[in-house]
Amino acid sequence: ADLGMGAWQAGKCWFTRGGHRQNHVDQGTTPPGFDDSAESWTTVVPSVSFATRAQATFNIAGSTTPVSDLIWTGCTNIPDGTTFTGTSTLNVDTDRDGKADHTKSVTVAPKCGRPVASPTVSPKDLGVGDRWPAGFYWWDLNVPKQGRYVLTATGHQGRTDAKESWTAAASRLMTAGVTSQAANGLVADWNQQDVTRDTKFDSHASSLLIAGGTDPVSDRVRLDVKSLDTPAHRDWDTNNDGRFDGNLRFTVKTTMHLTGGKSKAKTLDYASYHSVAGGNDSGTETFSFTPADFGLKTWPAGDAWFTSQVTGVTGADNGMNVACPAGQKLVGSKTDEYRLCLTDYDRETSELNGAENIHFTPKFKPSVTSKVEASTMSDGNPPKDEITVNLNTRTVSGLKVTARADVYWTPDKGADGTALPANRKHVAAVTPLVFDAASFRDGVATKTYDPAKDPAMKNVLGRLGTGYVTYVWRIDRTDLTGQQVTYGWDWHARGWTKTLTFESDRLLDMDATVSDGWRPGREQAEQTTGWWLKVTKIGYLGHDAHGRFQPDRPAKGAVLNMQETVDQTGRTPVAGATTNTITLNNKG
């Protein structure tokens, strides 16, 4: 103030001392002090500057790591190590309105020439919960006027400083899953419930698959996606057209399994997803399989089923160049806005899902065999016959079987086989035997045929001649068709008996007829019929009216040649008939 200053200003100061003439001083003098270090000094102005950088920043919301602010203090004309006090304030703008919604201040002690970190601030310290929310973050530094060196309040506002501010994009989650319906599923209408012991299959037409075919079987798989955030979003489809944005695709794997352990997996990339507005077909793709996929020529009998799951994502637009946590898949990211991750996506559909289960039902070929009760007969009658019908399956019930037979006579046994002898003579067709469904046990039923009780044999009984009588039984397909039969099996070998109802002709693996053929060993009886022939000579003894006939003279020693004729007149032999030579005894 003596010099008219409010405070010492920067510059050089010195004293100038003057002396006037006086005793012992012959002449006055004025020594200059400017260049005299003992009489001069320089006054400097201290200055402080602060450089800051936010630490442990993050670009995705959801982190729990505390953050801090690193402060570098630049000092001029201040001793190194001088410490100041100030305040660092963390700010976050969560609604992007340009204003801080939450703040937290911590005391800092910047030190000349030293980097000093502020105390850390956690999400709880800031009052935003356990994790950092999405928003715009920045640090502000304020150092008030203090001591000899900070002559005015100073600091640093970090909102516009890229080193002191950052954006945390929203960490968003979505999930995906599949539902499916096999085209030939045992359960229809996309019912995704697991089959239980009590589940009954309704035998709808498409579920009745037959083993041995080669046609493809298919599974329709529907992709469903949804947001796990509140409020919900649709970041995968920003224009809401039911299709994924850009090149984004969801990969779905479907595996077909066969009884016995064979399986085949196929994958498809989905460009769309299911939505109610899009109808049942939206977000649905079809996976087809053939026997060749399994190294087979035809479909084997037994259970088969499909399982499906989402396996990943391709074509994600990753504008932020970020990754998702382990176990999640990146669906997309948009700088300063969001990172979208897929979680809980790889759940595989259940192998017990009725809509995903199919069954290849085996065909069956019934057979008929018989065995006569007597291998020799002498009464001119056919023998009784025991007939066995075998469905050759224990899994089909409800079938009524009609067995038909023809009776033949032959002069010899004939050869065992399916071909009938050329020299056979048709005796009669028996009245068919009907085996009702209830008569079968484990697919087998037996009846005894008695020709004596068959009206169709009334003109045959007692009239069969010496030779061989043979039954030939058969089953005609036309007698088996048009029936409803039940097929049952142990589903997935769980001890759960399941059934399907079929039109019988779909399960028949036979041509027009099945027959046991010509089987002399068990379907034939040798017929020996006793008969006798007496020949007498008719002679006329005497002359003219005086003579008389003598009809009772035996034709002893006569040689007769006998042949079978076409009728009782005896005029025309049967073509190729055998000639039998008979020599009569003494009695003719």
UniProtKB/TrEMBL annotation:
Q: Which domain of life is it from?
A: Bacteria
- Quote the protein name from its UniProt record: Adhesin isopeptide-forming adherence domain-containing protein
